[in-house]
Structure formats: structure tokens, C-alpha cells
Amino acid sequence: MNELNRPVTEVAAGILLDVEGRYLLGQRPEGKPYAGYWEVPGGKIESGESVFAALKRELQEELGIDIESSEELVVLEHDYPHAYVRLHVSIIREWSGVPKGCEGQLLSWQLLGDAMPTVEPLLPAAWPMLEKLRLLKV
Ligand SMILES: Nc1nc2c([nH]c(=O)n2[C@H]2C[C@H](O)[C@@H](COP(=O)(O)OP(=O)(O)OP(=O)(O)O)O2)c(=O)[nH]1
């Protein structure tokens, strides 16, 4: 619970960063809240699961890749009408496989140097993590 007495949904989000300075966004599939919005891949952390284990599982399910390591970027919270979420955001530089939209979702590689993503709309809570990513000058 948080100070608003709402349960907190813990979420792991992974920013895949390639050697050309690009990161990956995916479009939320039909049937989920905010369907059609673009997001950083990831999903809910299951009870007893570590952030890394959740990321590994979600990116395997959503993108068909196997991540090898991750670095924590930021933890941020967002109060949506459907849920209060705490997002554990990590950067992933090492993975095997080629990301595909395993749940039928569209994917889009974005240039880190660009001020705005070329796809829209983005989930509201995706903006602060992308801002943090740019400040890092990775
Ligand atoms: N993956 C991801 N989720 C985000 C981002 N920003 C943001 O607010 N969220 C929120 C949306 C959802 O309320 C929650 C993630 O839940 P989800 O619905 O994608 O998770 P899931 O795949 O485990 O869902 P489910 O179908 O099992 O219920 O986090 C983001 O950039 N990436």
C-alpha cells in the first residue's frame, strides 16, 4: 500500500540498448489497459520474483530474447486510474536472439539522440524513464 491506500503494482521495464545507440519500444496489444500505446518492454513482477528474473521472463515471452545482464536505471511511480504502479527500469546491453513481437505487437527501434520518439502515443510513465536515459548519455 502507498500513502493513498492503493495497492502498488510492481513492474519491471527493460530498455534494450544496442551498440548503435538505439533503444526498443513496443506497442501494447489489444486487450490490455492502454492498448495501442507505446512502452518500454516488460511487465508485472510476480510475488517472490526478483526484478531481473521478471525482466528475463517478460522479455522472453514478449520479444523471444534471452537477456544476460541488466543495470538499474531508475525506479519511478505512477498513479493510473486502473493501478498505482512502481516501475523498476533497467538498461539491458547484453542479450541473445533477435527481438520479435511474440504477442503480435509492433516494435520500433528509436535513436537515443532524437528529442522525441517517432511513434506515439507513449504511456505516460514512459516519458520520465526516457528523459533519465538521455541524461545518462549512455
Ligand atoms: N512494460 C511497461 N509497463 C509500463 C510502462 N509504463 C507504465 O506505466 N507501465 C505500466 C502499465 C501497466 O499498468 C504496468 C505493466 O503491466 P502489463 O499489463 O504490461 O504487465 P503484464 O504483461 O505482466 O500484464 P498481464 O497481462 O499479465 O496483466 O505498468 C512501460 O514503459 N513499460
UniProtKB/TrEMBL annotation:
Its cofactor is Mg(2+). InterPro entries: MutT-like, Nudix_hydrolase, NUDIX_hydrolase-like_dom_sf, NUDIX_hydrolase_CS, NUDIX_hydrolase_dom. The keyword Isomerase does not apply. One of its GO terms (biological process) is DNA repair. Pfam families: NUDIX (PF00293). The keyword Nuclease does not apply. Its EC number is 3.6.1.55. It catalyses: 8-oxo-GTP + H2O = 8-oxo-GMP + diphosphate + H(+); 8-oxo-dGTP + H2O = 8-oxo-dGMP + diphosphate + H(+). Residues 7-137 form the Nudix hydrolase domain. It comes from the Bacteria. Keywords: DNA damage, DNA repair, DNA replication, Hydrolase, Magnesium, Metal-binding, Mutator protein. One of its GO terms (molecular function) is 8-oxo-GDP phosphatase activity. Belongs to the Nudix hydrolase family. This is 8-oxo-dGTP diphosphatase. It comes from Polynucleobacter arcticus.
